[in-house]
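Inverse folding, one chain.
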């Protein structure tokens, strides 16, 4: 629509005025905010933008591939893809406390990103200006309010993973935040106007520590691989199942949905044999603010299909459960 088109024009103009011919670095996470920020800044300054995509090995199935295809492939943006999974998993070995895991993931993330940013700052890339001068972030208006101290302690913790806080000072970069005045809905509309796919712009939130907080206890690559496949089946079926009453998919009717890996084994049967394999819990919630949430009353037919697909397709998982706990007292994530 023309209001959004006008908004894009103005935002593009402002970014050009702000950065001139200088170079910009942006941490791309695959989430809505950083994706829209990247698309907008790329529209404004093209190759003066370099995106850094840190893959911590705890992303959903094919997430890295999708991000690269979209930004490097379709938008022709400069994207540095850092596969840091070995480093993250190495640091997480032997650690089972949820807060300790969060801290390690947050710390490693900052370290890896900072190292890449420092290279871009010093080297100067292809452009004339000799090194990046700006750090762009997908900060949106609710983040601005939150960091003003209006929210709970938990929210502050969450932010430490999301926004690479403190980086601009450490790196001596200027901060570029073109979504600072926008609410989530406006960010999504802007994303659509910029040509990002609907599915990318209207996706469920995904926590910064990723599958790290969805694998209970110690994180292992083997567990992450099993969880990724189970989770992808769940999401695929949620997208494919339409609720006749509303005409919407169950992905749209839920605010967040995912699988959780439980590192316990239970007995099952397959053919003539006995199995002794891991358990996956499915979690789907409906909420308007993520502070409170109800477990979603998914149709039994959908649960049945997801369960049988996971057990048949993901060797190593022989039992699927559905989480019927609301928040509070349960949190949305299991850790
Ligand atoms: P909880 O589990 O506290 O989650 O009910 C509320 C919302 O916050 C997300 N969440 C996180 N996001 N880093 C993030 O970026 C985190 O450490 C983190 N922990 C929870 C969660 O996915 C839900 O949307």
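Residues assigned per position:
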């Amino acid at each position: 629509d023309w209001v959004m088109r006008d908004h894009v024009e103005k935002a593009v103009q402002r970014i050009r005025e702000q950065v001139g011919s200088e170079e910009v670095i942006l941490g791309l996470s695959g989430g809505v905010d950083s994706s829209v920020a990247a698309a907008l800044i790329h529209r404004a300054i093209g190759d003066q933008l370099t995106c850094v995509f840190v893959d911590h090995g705890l992303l959903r199935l094919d997430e890295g591939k999708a991000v690269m295809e979209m930004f490097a492939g379709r938008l022709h943006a400069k994207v540095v893809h850092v596969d840091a999974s070995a480093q993250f998993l190495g640091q997480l070995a032997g650690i089972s406390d949820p807060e300790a895991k969060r801290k390690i993931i947050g710390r490693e993330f900052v370290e890896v990103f900072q190292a890449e940013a420092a290279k871009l700052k010093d080297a100067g890339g292809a452009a004339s200006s000799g090194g990046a001068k700006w750090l762009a972030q997908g900060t949106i208006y609710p983040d601005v309010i939150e960091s003003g101290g209006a929210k709970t302690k938990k929210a502050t913790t969450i932010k430490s993973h999301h926004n690479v806080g403190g980086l601009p000072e450490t790196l001596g970069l200027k901060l570029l935040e073109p979504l600072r005045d926008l609410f989530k809905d406006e960010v999504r509309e802007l994303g659509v106007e910029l040509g990002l796919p609907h599915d990318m712009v209207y996706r469920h939130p995904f926590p910064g520590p990723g599958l790290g907080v969805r694998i209970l206890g110690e994180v292992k690559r083997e567990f992450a691989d099993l969880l990724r496949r189970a989770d992808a089946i769940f999401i695929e079926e949620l997208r494919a199942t339409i609720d006749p009453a509303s005409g919407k998919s169950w992905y749209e009717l839920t605010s967040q949905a995912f699988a959780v890996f439980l590192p316990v084994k239970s007995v099952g049967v397959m053919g003539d044999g006995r199995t002794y394999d891991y358990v996956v819990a499915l979690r789907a919630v409906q909420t308007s603010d993520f502070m409170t949430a109800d477990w979603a009353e998914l149709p039994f037919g959908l649960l049945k299909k997801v369960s049988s697909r996971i057990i048949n397709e993901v060797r190593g998982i022989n039992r699927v459960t559905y989480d019927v706990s609301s928040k509070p007292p349960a949190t949305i994530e299991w850790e």
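The CA atoms of residues 30 and 63 lie 7 Å apart. The two ends are 41 Å apart (CA to CA).
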